[in-house]
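Record minuted for completeness.

…
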Amino acid sequence: MPPTPCRTCQEFTLAEAVANGERDWSKATDCRVLRKRHQEAGECLDQKAG
């Protein structure tokens, strides 16, 4: 059974999609950076499961 997706990652992904829809490229980039930092900090549940 696959691990449950990390809620924080999902929130950043959703925020990025909304920003892209609004053509707010700066905000979309911020979301990608924040998601990557979250994953690299070891806080991401997806990273721990793998």
About this structure: The chain has a mean pLDDT of 87.
